[in-house]
Amino acid sequence: MPKTVLIVEDESNIRELLRMYLEQEGYTVETAQNGSEGLRVFKRVHPDLVLLDLMMPVMDGNQMIRELRTFSKTPVIMLTAKGEMIDKIAGLELGADDYITKPFEMREVMARVKAVLRRFETDEEPKRLEFDNLIIDKNAFNIVVKGETMEIPPKEIELLYFLASSPNRVFTRAQLLDDVWGFDYFGDTRTVDVHVKRLREKLQDVSTKWEIKTVWGVGYKFELLS
């Protein structure tokens, strides 16, 4: 299931720019123009994360997060043009989980969104995925192929687990670098190709019901075959 992000921002150009980038990354996006509307949308859609502007009419970001924290622990990243430390501290004390000062780079926002969502993954999310002749165990950092445990490098496990967690969804090489290697990794997209090649060599002829498929000109996906 794609994650849902609620953007609460009164400036339409910023709101729509954030929506566009988030949707390109595969998120479901809802928007609101002020805190009061934001709370109504929140209760309707129950998002996984909120991007919340501080300065807004009707109800500002501080008022909204104060109200939100009375009934929800959903992570909040505050967006504001104010750079003073006192504003940052106030937002964090009210319950914000991260803080980004405008103007911001969209790549940084996307990285912060991913990082905060990773921190708030619940223990209920499966760490063990099972497919035909294949078990991917992220806790033990191994895979089981036809009943036999195969020790492979952790980064290959992470890549396979990430792809298999969203069967049939296509990820670009850049997305895989960000999500598996992390925002601070400075390698190039050939790193992804090398790791996929190694995984394919190790998983060759394991099953006819799934495969790591190249989507030419785009990237890769873990495809379930009928």
Structure description:
This protein is an alpha/beta fold and 226 residues long. The protein has 2 domains: 4-119, 3-Layer(aba) Sandwich (Rossmann fold), CATH 3.40.50; 128-224, Arc Repressor Mutant, subunit A. 40% of the residues lie in helices and 23% in strands. It is built from 8 helices and 12 strands. It has a 5-stranded parallel sheet with strand order 2-1-3-4-5, sandwiched between helices. A hairpin with a 3-residue loop joins strand 11 (210-215) and strand 12.
Write a concise synopsis of the structure shown:
This protein is of the alpha/beta class and 226 residues long. 40% of the residues lie in helices and 23% in strands. It folds into 2 domains: 4-119, Response regulator (Rossmann fold), CATH 3.40.50; 128-224, Arc Repressor Mutant, subunit A, CATH 1.10.10.10.
